[in-house]
Predict the 3D structure of the following.
Amino acid sequence: MPIINRIAGLAPEMTAWRRHLHAHPELGFDCHETAAYVAARLAEIGVDEIHTGIAQSGIVAMINGQGAGPVVGLRADMDALPIHEQSSVGHASTVPGKMHACGHDGHTAMLLGAAKYLAETRGFRGRVALIFQPAEEDGGGAGVMVAEGIMDRFDIAEVYALHNAPGQEAGRIITTPGPIMAAVDEFTIRIAGRGGHGAMPHETVDPIPPAVSMVQAIQTIVSRNHHALKDLVISVTQIHAGTTDNVIAGEAMINGTVRTFDPAVQAMVMERMAAIVAGQAASFEVKATLDYAIGYPATINDPARTEFAAEVAAELVGADKLDAAAGREMGAEDFSYMLQARPGAYLFLGAGAGPGLHHAGYDFNDEILPIGASLLARLAERALPLAG
């Protein structure tokens, strides 16, 4: 089963949609103009229902098939990133400090392409729910949409999503059963000392030595407190203190990320980090607070739905361009909330060479739009086959 001919014919239209979205990025839940553009395209396409304002700017649109049957959900994310674009493309961001550096513009265009094909052909029974979600990058828009009841409201039985993957062969489809992406937490440590003259440290309580010791001790959580065969990443990504060379700062801040799959490992990290902060603060006679924020849970594919999705992918691109047991990675994705609510699968679509995700020079590869749209459409058709 090659790329669907009708969807291949939609490539110029999908490219135009994608490039319009790329030029007009929005962040978080504030995707109102993006949602208005998507809703206008859905109305032109002729879907049966358009429900807006979910999770502030999210959309669920419904396409009815031929006869009664279950509902399959297909999800795309719409939000951009707070990055100033540094590409030279003609459709570069028109909004300073914001850009589609993760390909959500492409994900949205692919789902619109699948929607146009499915609304024209309706070669399935039951219904397809098209989920256009805000705030994947920050805010957990998928979780908010689930909390607002979309799974029950639209009677969604199973759900699927795609993400482009720069650096992987263009058109290659990658997935894995079970855990595929990690849970993500954030921690911030604030250290309060007493500032003063850099030449008179004995009159101060310097927050920098305890900050350095805390960072070093936090690294031992990975190396000495957890089983080496259980995935864990702790990265300190920010340290801030002071403003000039001859002044000892009064405060310091440490910030970072934790990635896990096992809730027991996550709990251990929280316990050890709290003990380290308290112990180091006492030894250096400073005050310190730890703010540990639990974020997106691990993204866990349903094994049966993943096997089904892999079969559909193999039919589409060929078995030689499918990796159905790729293993898990330490990135995170809020589609995890939808997979907690309903069985389904998350897949990656190779985008070829070029700058990686979250890079200021990134741009989505429009050549893979028909592949992604065809995969989304075929997942719906194969999950909802016509009787007889």
Observations:
- The chain has eleven helices and 16 strands.
- Residues 122 and 316 are 19 Å apart (CA to CA).
- The chain has a mean pLDDT of 97.
- The longest strand covers residues 156-166.
